[in-house]
Amino acid sequence: MDSVGVAAAAPDAGPGPAWQSKCPWGAPNTTSISCSLADVMSEQLAKELQLEEENAAFPEVVAAAEGPFITGENIDTSSDLMLAQMLQMEFDKEYDAQLRREEKKINGDSKVSISFENYRKVHPYDSDSSEDEVDWQDTRHDPYRADKPTTTPRRGFIGKGKDITTKHDEVVCGRKNTARMENFAPEFQVGDGIGMDLKLSNQVFNALKQHAYSEERRSARLHEKKEHSTAEKAVDPKTRLLLYKMVNSGMLETITGCISTGKESVVFHAYGGKSATEDKVIPPECAIKVFKTTLNEFKNRDKYIKDDYRFKDRFSKLNPRKIIRMWAEKEMHNLTRMQNAGIPCPQVVILKKHVLVMSFIGQDQVPAPKLKDVTLSSEDMKKAYYQILNMMQQLYKECNLVHADLSEYNMLWHDGKVWLIDVSQSVEPTHPHGLEFLFRDCRNVSQFFQKGGVAEALNERELFNAVSGLNITADNEVDFQAEIEALEKMNEDHVQNHGKKLSTFSSDGDPPIYDE
After folding, report:
1. Is 92 tagged catalytic?
2. What digits encode the pLDDT tens for the residues 179-212?
3. Are 60 and 81 in contact (CB under 8 A)?
4. Spatial distance between the Cα atoms of 392 and 384, rounded to a whole number of angstroms
5. Which of 96, 236, 308, 405 is catalytic?
6. Which of 12, 22, 122, 394 is packed most tightly, with the most Cβ within 10 A?
7. Which domains does the chain have, with CATH numbers?
């Protein structure tokens, strides 16, 4: 046998295992070629040997890595290793993109920057997707926003010679003013003035700044007014707390809702509960009068209280909001006087700050109609007129009060008789304008019943003399009012000079009699 053929067939017949022919660390089949020490130590040769070993050990992985990763046609889901490497590669890309966003967010426009290059998983790569590189919500720089105007240096000018530009330049100041508008309140819309290269003069900018400041203060006042004041058919938190306490204490069973609104108060209906004391009886139905805590309606009504000697000393010492509580207290005292004199009026239950609880004039949550809204027969109208005349005389002589706002709007018709309400503005006849208020009440009552067809209705001057007991004789209304003002002036001068209150007016037209 030929020795060459035996030598060629020897490896196939060998008893060695099959993996030795594939393993790169197995015994070589051919004799090694001798080389010099310089070739062995070269880096190029080492890289080539490393690549050969990797290709021989992982041929499928390398082939998959060379091709495209994320394509539906080339993904081989049978290889778990390839899928794991693909997922790891995507995770590394997202991690590196997050690092780049953090770098830009931290560095911003700073001259000194930091880098997370050592923490990246994959070498920098070029990506076609802008979403992987930049997230504009996480960066300080907005590419769609115009750059702010550059500031002038400390020396106050830029350029030299004819091209010099100072900080007082009209264009520079205009652009600076436009940029300063961004410091206005968020609710003040300024628009994109920088992008339009808008130039505002100092006069226009100062006017806009003052307007923005005024609007901000106005909105704050409106918000405070809404939070701390009663509104139409609504109450503020403090008033609501007072009502809750009344219900929780058992004084009121429940509050059903609003039944009336006015300029100065809101009236609610409620069912009465049990009183803590046995001597006080709470009516089955109650009316809760909540005085509005806004001062708009009280600007022209302070004359009813500041000149009343009962509250004159306290008026000057209280702030405007506490005057409203005094207004509620005044109505409580006036109702108590009227109730003691037997005049039909609501019964006072309790007063808590600016909340007054009274008996309800009506039935089954339906309030009694006002005299202007009810249609009465001629007999009932005549009966109502004489009843009101009697009540006005009682109010003046027995209660020593003048209603000061008596009209068909403040009189209710219930159970066949007239009831008086809304006496918070009532004053005593010794008030500096007490007789004027009485004459105005007489005019309102006389005009209403004369229009209602009551033939026996007196005119305002006759009614005034009948109620007050004075005998003022004047041919016309002007002279009549002049005499009323003269009486009030005499009373006011006496109070200022002697500090005494006028007890009553004489009925024969002579000067008033004073108590010494």
Report:
1. no
2. 888 778 776 777 777 777 788 888 888 888 888 8
3. no
4. 12
5. 405
6. 394
7. 158-226 (no CATH), 234-367 (3.30.200.20), 369-501 (1.10.510.10)
